[in-house]
Design a protein that fits this description.
Helix content: 25-40%
Shape: globular
Radius of gyration: 14 Å
Number of helices: 3
Number of strands: 4
Oligomer: single chain
Distance between the termini: 39 Å
Largest sheet: 4 strands, antiparallel
Amino acid sequence: MTANGIQSLAMNRRDVDAGGLLSVRGMLLSEKGLFRSRSRDVAPMEQSGCGDAFSASIVHGLLNRWDAQHTLDYAVAHAAYKATVEGELSWADEATIERIVTGDARGSIIR
């Protein structure tokens, strides 16, 4: 699957329900197949920068040679986290996002 040099393709989807809850999920197509994330639901402050956080996290995972599912889960968690903070930038470090991925956030986003 390296047509035109493309080895991976990722996308995210964000939906807001009638109550204002934001659901973030994604897919990653790689040489090893199609991977899907679980949905991450958060009460958003704003969505600007969520796509950037997702894309940057995909690149981060690929450069660090993480497996595809972990890369995708990390990217979705980072996009969901970004929706909970104001501004266009995410200042989250890797450990913060990893806690969300592993479920160690105890049901909340830790800032």
